[in-house]
C-alpha cells in the first residue's frame, strides 16, 4: 500500500498511524518499519502471484500522521505508565528518519490530528524543538500541518498557527472528524437532533462557514489551506456507478479549488489524477495564498449553526451498518475499510455511533413519527449483523463481530456520550499475529 501510494502521482502521501490504522502492536511496528524502508527507498514487496512492487524514480513527498493526544500506546511504558501514542508515533518516525530525510533533500513532515486547544499546539512545538536539539537539526526542520477537525479548534485557528509558527505548513479541513466533534459538542443540548448523515454535506452552512474561515485564516498568515478527503473509491465492476462516483469527486474538488484551497485529499490512489486535474485547471499557480479575500468574516453564530432535516429509518440503518462493519474490522487489526464503495476510517464510525446516541438520548423521531429509541437502534444492529454471513466480501470473524456489537450497544445506551470509540475499544483490541505476547 505504501509503495502504491508513493507511486500514485500525488504530490504528497500521508502514512496514517491514526484514524486509518488499527493500533495493534504488530501493525504499528510494521508500519514504522515500512516507513523507515520507504525513506531509504529500499521498500520492496512481492505478491503471492509473483508481482513485484518497488518505488518509481519520482515519488510523492512523505508525511506521517501520529495518533492524537487522547490515546496511549500501552505496549511501551515510561516510568511504569503507557507512553502517549502521539509521542510514540512521532518519536519513532523522527528519531529514525528526520536526519535521513533532510539528507535526501526533503524533511520530516507531520500531520497533527484532533487538536482542541492552542496549548496542544504549543506542546507539539515544544516537542519539535526538543527533537531538533537532540538530533542537531536546525530550528524549523520539522514541519507540520494541523487538522482542524474539532469544533473548539475552529475558534483557535490563529492561535494554533501562532504556537507552531516555527514549524507550521498550514491547516487542513478534517471535515469528517469535524462533523463528529460538532455532534459531540452538542451532547448536552437535548434540542439538537442532527439529520441523516447523508444530508450533512459540505454545502451545509456550518461546514461551509468553517471551510471559508480556515481558508481566510491561513491565507492572512501566509499558510496553506488544505481541503478535505474524498472518500470515494473506484468501482470496477459497475461502470455506471463508477462514473457517478467520479462525478462526485470532481464536484467536490471544484468546490474546494473555487473556495480557495491550496490542495486536497483523496482516499484512493486511483482518484489522484481526477483531483489533480481539477486543481491544476482551477489553480494554475502553486497555491492561492495571494488570492484576494471575498465576503465577510464568519462569526461565532455562523460556526455554531445547527443543521436541520429529516431522520429516516434508512439513516438509522446506515449508521448501524457503518459503525458495526468498521469496528468489527478495526478489532481484527484493519483500520481502513471499504463500505458501500467509500473508504472509511474511524471518523465514520464515530459520526455514526454519535448520531445514534444523540437520536436516542435527545428523543428524536423518524420522519414517520416513530421514536428513535434503543429498541429501534438495537433492531437496526441486529438486521445489519445478520447480513455478515451472507456477504462473501466481508470475512468477519465471529469473535470480533460479537465484541463490536457489544461495544456499540454499550456506547449507544450509555447515559453520557463516550469521547472516542477507539479509546474505549482499545482494551478489546487483540494483535492478530500474537504481538500482544511479546
Looking at this protein, list some descriptive labels:
13 strands; two-stranded parallel sheet; single chain; alpha/beta; 438 residues
Fold and architecture overview:
There is one protein chain. α9 (239-259) runs parallel beside α10. Strands 7-8-9-10-11 form a five-stranded parallel beta sheet. It is globular and about 60 Å long. The protein is α/β, with parallel strands linked by helices. The chain has helices at residues 2-6, 25-39, 85-103, 118-134, 151-154, 157-163, 175-185, 205-220, 239-259, 272-282, 300-303, 313-331, 346-361, 374-386, 398-413, 421-425, and strands at residues 12-16, 44-46, 52-54, 61-65, 72-78, 81-84, 109-112, 143-148, 168-173, 224-230, 263-266, 337-339, 342-344. Helices cover 45% and strands 14% of the residues. The longest helix has 21 residues, at 239-259. The protein has 16 helices and 13 strands. The two termini are 26 Å apart.
Short recap of the structure:
The chain is an alpha/beta fold and 438 residues long. The protein contains 16 helices and 13 strands.
> What share of the residues lie within helices?
40-55%
Q: Biggest sheet: strands side by side, in what order? A: 7-8-9-10-11
Unreliable parts: none
The major beta sheet can be summarized as: 5 strands, parallel
User: Which structural class best describes the helix and strand composition?
Assistant: alpha/beta
Give the topology string: H per helix, E per strand.
HEHEEEEEHEHEHHEHHEHEHHHEEHHHH
Strand % is 5-15%
Q: Compute the number of helices.
A: 16
Q: Round the mean pLDDT to the nearest integer and report it.
A: 94
Amino acid at each position: 500500500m505504501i509503495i502504491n501510494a508513493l507511486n500514485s502521482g500525488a504530490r504528497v502521501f500521508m502514512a496514517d498511524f491514526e484514524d486509518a490504522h488499527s493500533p495493534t502492536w504488530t501493525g504499528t511496528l510494521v508500519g514504522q518499519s515500512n516507513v523507515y524502508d520507504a525513506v531509504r527507498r529500499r521498500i520492496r514487496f512481492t505478491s503471492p502471484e509473483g508481482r513485484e512492487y518497488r518505488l518509481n524514480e519520482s515519488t510523492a513527498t512523505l508525511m506521517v500522521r501520529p495518533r492524537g493526544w487522547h490515546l496511549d500506546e500501552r505496549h511501551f511504558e515510561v516510568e511504569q505508565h503507557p507512553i502517549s501514542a502521539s509521542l510514540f508515533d512521532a518519536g519513532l518516525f523522527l528519531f529514525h528518519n528526520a536526519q535521513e530525510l533532510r539528507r535526501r533533500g526533503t524533511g520530516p513532515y507531520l500531520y497533527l490530528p484532533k487538536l482542541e486547544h492552542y496549548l496542544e499546539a504549543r506542546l507539539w512545538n515544544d516537542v519539535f524543538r526538543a527533537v531538533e536539539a537532540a538530533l542537531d537539526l536546525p530550528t524549523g526542520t520539522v514541519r507540520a500541518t494541523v487538522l482542524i477537525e474539532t469544533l473548539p479548534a475552529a475558534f483557535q485557528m490563529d492561535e494554533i498557527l501562532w504556537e507552531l509558527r516555527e514549524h507550521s505548513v498550514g491547516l487542513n479541513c478534517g471535515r469528517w472528524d469535524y462533523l463528529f466533534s460538532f455532534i459531540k459538542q452538542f451532547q448536552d443540548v437535548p434540542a439538537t437532533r442532527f439529520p441523516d448523515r447523508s444530508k450533512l454535506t459540505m454545502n451545509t452552512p456550518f461546514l461551509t462557514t468553517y471551510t471559508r474561515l480556515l481558508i481566510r485564516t491561513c491565507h492572512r498568515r501566509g499558510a496553506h489551506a488544505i481541503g478535505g478527503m474524498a472518500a470515494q473509491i473506484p468501482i470496477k465492476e459497475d461502470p455506471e456507478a463508477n462514473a457517478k462516483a467520479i462525478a462526485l469527486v470532481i464536484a467536490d474538488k471544484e468546490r474546494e479549488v473555487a473556495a480557495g484551497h491550496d490542495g486536497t485529499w483523496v482516499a484512493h490512489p486511483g482518484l489522484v489524477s481526477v483531483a489533480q486535474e481539477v486543481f491544476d485547471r482551477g489553480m494554475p499557480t502553486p497555491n492561492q495564498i495571494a488570492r484576494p479575500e471575498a465576503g465577510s468574516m464568519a462569526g461565532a453564530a455562523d460556526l455554531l449553526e445547527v443543521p436541520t432535516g429529516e431522520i429516516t429509518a434508512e439513516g438509522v440503518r446506515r449508521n448501524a451498518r457503518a459503525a458495526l462493519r468498521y469496528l468489527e474490522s478495526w478489532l481484527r487489526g484493519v483500520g481502513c475499510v471499504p463500505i458501500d464503495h467509500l473508504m472509511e476510517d474511524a471518523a465514520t464510525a464515530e459520526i455514526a455511533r454519535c448520531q445514534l446516541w444523540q437520536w436516542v438520548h435527545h428523543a428524536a423521531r423518524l420522519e414517520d413519527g416513530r421514536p428513535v429509541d434503543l429498541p429501534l437502534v438495537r433492531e437496526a444492529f441486529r438486521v445489519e449483523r445478520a447480513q455478515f454471513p451472507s456477504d462473501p466480501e466481508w470475512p468477519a470473524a465471529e469473535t470480533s463481530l460479537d465484541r463490536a456489537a457489544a461495544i456499540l450497544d454499550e456506547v449507544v445506551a450509555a447515559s453520557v456520550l463516550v469521547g472516542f470509540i477507539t479509546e474505549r475499544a482499545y482494551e478489546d483490541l487483540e494483535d492478530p499475529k500474537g504481538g500482544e505476547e511479546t
